[in-house]
Write a sequence for this structure.
């Protein structure tokens, strides 16, 4: 079969690095470009011919099904399987295997719920079929691979090793990393041990390689971003709005801003850089917002300046306050005349008085 009709989407992570965004919301459900991030992944899989998707859920599992239902609104058949004890990436794949209907040699697409990518899914499936691989991996090239797992390949694209998070120059033998999307031959999934935690990166793939299985790598150098940190998440959302990252699920035309229905933006506010203003949000006079995400019901008071930041649902940003690279949790209150920058995070529901945090101009 040269088309993957089925997919497993791994959405069980706690999103610890994304807090406070993930206190009330699992990472795949945090809005990016106006819809839950997961919507973009589901829509791209559908566009590539996938019809049946099993979501492997764990953290805040109960919020997925009420939103997506059976998937019919996206042209998909979606099923949900919840892990009650975290099973790791390999364990999660094995845990949902009983829901698959594919034959032993059919391709099954598997991808991580926190990667924004322009991957040509059909090309990965075609490469898998042509090479006759047991597992095919999407690989991408990065300048600094130390935070990732390296995947060197031979001249034919066949994987030769898996090197987890190398640190010394001698260990960095390639700039190719595991980009978090795979095609498994259906029968290979059944070889993963059931009922215990398994890491596909540290156990399954190296084990298959050692046993002589054929693992194929396809380097695809389109857009790729790991949305594991708040700064990356904000950038990914802006790139979707700007059209740099492709998605059929962006609710509107690509451009400098995406203002959703029921949001209110003052005529002289300046909104740019792929900023999203979500439903019911209110942007006051003279506010300047660049490359940011303003979630539902948030209020940005007059003359506030927000850059590369995320303002949580129902939060309020006071007049003349400046945010740069900041994350403001749901329902937080930041008073007037504050300056918050460089990765600062304000917890959900926190209250910061007027002029409580300032940076001197000579810093």
């Amino acid at each position: 079969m040269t088309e993957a009709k089925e997919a497993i989407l791994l959405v069980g992570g706690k999103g610890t690095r994304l807090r406070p965004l993930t206190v009330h919301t699992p990472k795949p459900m945090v809005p990016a470009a106006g819809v839950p991030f997961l919507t973009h992944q589901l829509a791209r899989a559908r566009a590539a011919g996938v019809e049946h998707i099993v979501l492997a859920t764990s953290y805040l599992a109960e919020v997925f099904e009420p939103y997506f239902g059976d998937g019919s609104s996206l042209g998909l058949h979606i099923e949900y399987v919840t892990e009650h004890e975290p099973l790791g990436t390999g364990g999660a794949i094995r845990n949902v295997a009983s829901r698959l209907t594919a034959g032993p040699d059919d391709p099954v697409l598997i991808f991580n719920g926190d990667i924004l990518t322009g991957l040509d899914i059909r090309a990965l499936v075609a490469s898998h079929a042509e090479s006759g691989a047991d597992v095919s991996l999407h690989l991408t090239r990065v300048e600094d691979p130390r935070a990732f797992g390296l995947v060197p390949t031979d001249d034919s694209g066949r994987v030769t090793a898996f090197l987890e998070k190398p640190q010394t120059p001698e260990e960095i033998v390639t700039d190719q990393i595991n980009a978090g999307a795979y095609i498994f031959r259906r029968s290979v999934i059944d070889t993963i041990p059931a009922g215990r935690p398994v890491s596909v990166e540290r156990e399954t793939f190296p084990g298959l390689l050692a046993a002589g299985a054929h693992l194929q790598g396809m380097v695809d150098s389109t857009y790729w971003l790991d949305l594991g940190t708040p700064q990356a998440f904000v950038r990914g959302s802006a790139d979707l709005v700007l059209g740099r990252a492709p998605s059929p699920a962006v609710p509107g035309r690509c451009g400098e801003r995406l203002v959703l229905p029921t949001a209110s933006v003052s005529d002289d506010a300046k909104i740019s850089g792929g900023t999203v203003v979500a439903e019911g949000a209110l942007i006051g006079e003279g506010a300047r917002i660049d490359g940011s995400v303003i979630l539902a019901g948030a209020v940005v008071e007059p003359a506030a300046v927000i850059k590369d930041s995320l303002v949580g649902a129902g939060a309020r940003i006071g007049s003349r306050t400046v945010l740069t690279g900041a994350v403001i949790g749901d329902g937080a209150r930041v008073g007037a005349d504050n300056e918050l920058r460089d990765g600062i995070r304000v917890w959900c529901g926190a209250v910061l008085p007027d002029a409580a945090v300032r940076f001197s101009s000579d810093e």
